[in-house]
């Protein structure tokens, strides 16, 4: 593998440079996304509460063990962005290189495209735009690939190593499970292409057994060390419950399947969709004309990988249906890319379509980042206005504060919502979350804890009522209504 990397050094470096161009707007705009507000504010890890204890350990280590040997809780982290997203880009490009090697890509364009696809998948924007999570999510992808590759090797030592790697990956991010399954689909596809069909069943057994024991060890660890209210969040409890073994359970599976298909449909932009459909039609036509079933099988692998990317979530009573959980989506395009390489007719045209598809992914990433920057700028204007008026009317640190509502998005964001549908899942106001808005206010000198009770004593006096906010002062605190501008 290292020898091949030396041979492909130039292609890898070019792909790496392009990956840095891809993440550039996220670095420049310096946005905060959901949990980023809280982690920047308090230094809390909290991944252990989501069943991801090794994420807390890794990020504590990168933060120079600011909390000492305590890896969990407040005061552990400090903000090292953009180092996290830069390392994420490197890791995902390396994952792309491993996929390219697995698929035996021949042409430089195909190799470079394959190296870029895992990172530049539209759905993966939901992972890279996190200040803290982007790196650890990418590490779980790398671990998933290594687990699948190690379990496919001969010898018990390699298989045991794959179990250990799988345990580590799941402890970092549970979405590594569908990533393993998606990579397994690529491996089976290549066995079929190489006329090594008899090895497919053996490969599936090895990978599934490795994945099973990895998950078993993970569950034992979680029950032994991270079970209880002090570690497990209500959010995790809600989204990790399994379906019942009954007819109702089957109905939930069908409903979950429709939810994921609906999400995939909603996040697909018009232009990339047309390119993808054109590519699929061309590939199936060439497969029929050339009587090459391997090309058609790459289309089947494409569909299988998409389904496997959310298949494990179908057995959950209330799964998270968001782009970020489809962490393996980029692998589906890698399967198509291999099919394109096997075409003797229209191969150049088909490769060009994939290159254009990747270019559209760049455009979408830039659009999402800029939309977030626009919305966050409005959030900051509102936060600054709230802070100014609170201080003017007697606010003191620690006073009770209740903030309701959030600003509407401007026309520029509406256009991005329309052109880039995935942005509707990703771009929003910090004031829309009951917790993160108070972390935002701390950046403007307003330090009030999250209110446990939003009721106040007395009727209150309106101190400010303009086009932006309505500020009411009570005997025991302040209430702010944000108006939809």
Textual characterization of the structure:
- Helix 5 (83-103) packs across helix 6 (108-120), helix 8 (133-152) packs antiparallel against helix 9 and helix 15 (293-308) runs antiparallel to helix 16 (329-341).
- This protein is mainly α and 485 residues long.
- It has helices at 2-7, 9-29, 35-42, 53-62, 83-103, 108-120, 125-128, 133-152, 156-172, 176-193, 198-225, 234-240, 247-267, 270-290, 293-308, 329-341, 347-392, 411-419, 423-426, 436-442, and strands at 401-404, 461-465, 469-474, 477-482.
- Strand 2 (461-465) and strand 3 (469-474) form a beta hairpin.
- It is built from 20 helices and four strands.
- It has two domains: 2-345, no CATH class; 368-482, no CATH class.
Give keywords:
485 residues, Glucos_trans_II, four-stranded mixed beta sheet, mainly alpha, 64% helix, 20 helices, 2 domains
Provide the β-strand percentage band.
under 5%
Q: Please give the order of strands in the largest beta sheet.
A: 1-4-3-2
Low-confidence stretches: none
Give the C-alpha Rg.
24 Å
As for the number of domains, it is 2
Sheet with most strands: 4 strands, mixed
Number of DSSP-assigned strands: 4
Kindly name the structural category: mainly alpha
Provide a count of the helices. 20
End-to-end C-alpha gap: 56 Å
Q: How much helicity do the residues have?
A: 55-70%
Average the pLDDT over all residues and give the rounded result: 89
Helices and strands, in order, run as HHHHHHHHHHHHHHHHHEHHHEEE
Shape: globular
